[in-house]
Known about the structure:
The structure holds two protein chains of two kinds.
Chain A: H1 6-30, H2 33-42, H3 46-61, H4 63-68, H5 70-98, H6 105-109, H7 111-114, H8 122-148, H9 163-190, H10 195-207, H11 211-231, H12 239-251, H13 262-269, H14 276-280, H15 293-302, H16 307-311, H17 318-322, H18 329-340, E1 367-370, H19 372-377, H20 379-391, E2 396-398, H21 409-413, H22 417-434, E3 438-441, H23 444-453, E4 460-463, H24 464-473, E5 485-489, H25 502-511, E6 513-515, H26 538-552, E7 559-562, H27 565-572, E8 578-581, H28 582-589
Helix pairs in contact in A: 1-11, 3-12, 5-8, 8-9, 9-10, 9-11, 12-13, 20-28, 24-25, 25-28
Chain B: E1 2-7, H1 11-22, E2 27-30, E3 45-46, E4 51-52, H2 53-67, E5 70-72, E6 77-82, E7 88-92, E8 97-105, E9 109-111, E10 128-130, H3 131-141, E11 156-163, H4 179-193, E12 198-203, H5 213-222, E13 227-230, E14 233-238, E15 244-250, E16 255-261, E17 263-268, E18 270-272, H6 274-283, E19 310-312, H7 322-342
Helix pairs in contact in B: 1-2, 1-7, 4-5
Amino acid sequence: MENYFVLPFTVGTVILFSILLVKYALWISKLSKIDKLRIVQSIFSRRTLSAIKECFMECLIHRRIFKRNILLGYMHMSLAFGWFLLIVVGHIEWVVYSGTFVTYPWNSIFFQYFVHESFPGEKIMANIMDFLLLFVLSGVLLAYFKRINSRMYGIKKTTKLKPRDRMTMCALWLIFPLRLLAEGATASFYHNGGFLTNSVGRFFEWIQISHTTEEILWWSYSISLGVFFVGLPWSRYMHIFTEVLLIGIRSTGVKLKKEFNSYSRIQVYSCSRCGICIDVCQMHISNISNNQSVYILKNIRDQNLTDRKLFNCLLCGRCEQACPVNINLNDLRISQRIRATKEYNSDYAFLKTLPVEQPVEDKTPEVIYFAGCMTHMTPGIKKSVLKVLEKANVNYQFMDKDKGACCGRPLMLAGQYEAAKKLIAHNREKILESGASTLLVSCPICYKVFKDDYELGQISIKHHSEYFLELVEQGKITLKKSDKSIVYHDPCELGRGCGVYEPPRNLLKMTGNLQSIQQEKVNSLCCSGSLGDLCLSMSDRNTIKAETLKVLLNQNPDMLATACPLCKKTFVKGVDIQVKDIAEIVAESMEN
Amino acid sequence: MIDVLIIGGGIAGIQAACSLQDLGLETVIVEKEKTIGGHLNDWDTLFPTFRSASEVIDYYTEETRKRALTIYLNTNVISIKKVDEGVFEVQTSRDVLFRSKSVVLASGYQLFNAERKEEYGYKIYDNVLTSADLEKKFRRLNGQPFKTPTDKTPKRIGFIHCVGSRDEKSGNHYCSKLCCVTAVKQAIHMKQVCPEADVFCCYMDLRMYGPGFEEMYREAQEKYHVQFIRGRLSEVSENSDGTLQLKVEDTLAARPCRIQADMLVLMVGMEASKNTALFKQSCNLECASNRFVKPNDHHIGSNQTNVPGLFTAGTSIGPMSVFDTVNHAKSVAFAVNEYLKNSEL
């Protein structure tokens, strides 16, 4: 049989889909019961449609990468969407030719090898296929060139690749040029190609290649396909199929848990190692270039993650924001920290003995205020919050006025989940007992954990910037505007962490001249003071902070405003201008 | 052209000018304030002898008058430039360009801004002072009974060591070395003016390095019953009556504790003066990681800098006591003299 050359492709395909089937079945079976129920319930819902749309936009078109850089987006789109269309249109071509819908995959994949005679629509189909091949080849060319000059693609630092990835990548790089040559070789004998393959065919005709050469080229094409398929599950290209699975499962509402489970694994395998997360990482400023998310995910896959890398991260969320696959990089890292951490002797029995603060007035408070450790460390902020509450005549209870417990977020960031749970349970009880309808928080670090992990039911959790804005809107306080120019720094936990960007800005617009800066909102920089990093030295932090300040103070504002006590504390020692929390600014701008 | 331009009219600058004059060199002093004496003007008494700081200033004022030293007061130095043939051109706020063969930096230090350590509540709570504020209060006391800023007679007074020293988070990793003994001195002084009050100090280490210091420390404990708690202060909060609540760790007892106090004194550290950074830019002066001027040779040439002809006297190279400053200023005269003799100017 002369058709043996389809074997490498066929074997590769069988191996690939067997592995994928087994892996995916295993992962899905290991999901929690609730998650599985979610999936079953959502299969025939509108969510599936939106998931299909997302798969099309992200896995094929690569819309998010386009947003980052057009050239990079085009490269990904031409490879993914182009290849996808080659398969689909290739099958249509077979259907047009044979009139049957079902066939062996090799018949459509190696169509030009098998079908020499003409059929209605042959020229149109051949030209469409050639056009698609050209489309994919342009992407392959761009991929070659990206290895030489990645800066043109908006990427300064590219991912360091492993040998396994390199081998699979080389196979991928060879597939389409070999397909062109193989189809060209057949076209040199039968002229059954389109504009592109026939041109190559004419060249082959001119140099008079033999049928053996044609055979060799088809074999090579098939082998490169086979090698790529076999290598795929073991390389970064696993993301091609896993991302589809991820989008599907995510659309059903499955969320990442604190423990590392099979959904976490699906996220890890969805990483394409595109390297977009590398450039946005501020750690490079201190020459730390081995702990970026792409490497962490790679290490998780290869089970060789070191604590040093794992804990050396500000958890600012800039990589998560940039990730084109929308992987929950911060939570994944925290789940690994929980896994890597031994629980220390966290006996919080003494918390039971702490006195409970009584509300200011003798009735159920409307607001329960939790200042948190960081606000206690910045008494200027604490005083201002209380001043505003008094001024607006709010009936509040100061939950941790004297002997309060920590919110649990620092422990969570350090992977001390069990210890954090105890504090959370303690605080949760106190909050619910108070009967207040609003929990007011003046620290974004606490705010994040209250929102994510406290399950406070009907109680609305408000950061002081949100709450003060409400007070202004309700006319309970009035602010007077000064002509001071203000630049606002978005705290990571408040901005990217909880999506609060506008309330602080709206307040600042009422009190002064708010200037916008280059990197703000989702793209804002970390102050470097983050509690998320357990390894970073003070001097490295200072280097990172200096760069952040350069961006913030570029326009020489009169005042640097922020909404986080830790950011304030971090910046204060680095600048001469005033650094103030939004609470202080509001308290100072209140009209009598 | 003058022989030596001295930047700073504190005790280092004046002493350097006196010694240089003794060696027959012509000097000009530029001082940014309206009087000479620098930080010493704000101080009441000096360790370890409780001598009045004004006595020292009076001595230098008298010397200045006797020797008819040339001093430009209210004059800020904007830049120091070394031009051709090693001549220094010093631009000042008076629109006078000084040309000199050598320059002595006696521009001193500045105190750590305690507001940066916000958790200690300086300028937020009324009863939190710095060591410099307390000296000013002592100066104005004139035998009147001592009152806290909220006008009460204090019953418990705390001194907090290492505020802005040995504290990377506040940006200063180094030891200011004088705050320990200053705290002991001020604690004793406090006991002398308020014998009924309890006085305590929260410290990391007590660095009683100089002659008479250790004796003072013993006296503070034995005679004045000042309590020394080994551990840092974490945060301060204010009670409704204006008194303060301190969260401290007692590392010898290995437990956290809460202490009430009527008044708190923060022993602020010494930082390189802002002008040092300015000079660093204008004449490529090398500074150490603590931002003070880096001596060219720590052991046998601490007056020299990396710029030939540019010398230092006093605390521009790091925290120094009054007597160390005076000695350093005396030694700069010999260094400058040797330089001018060997140079071709």
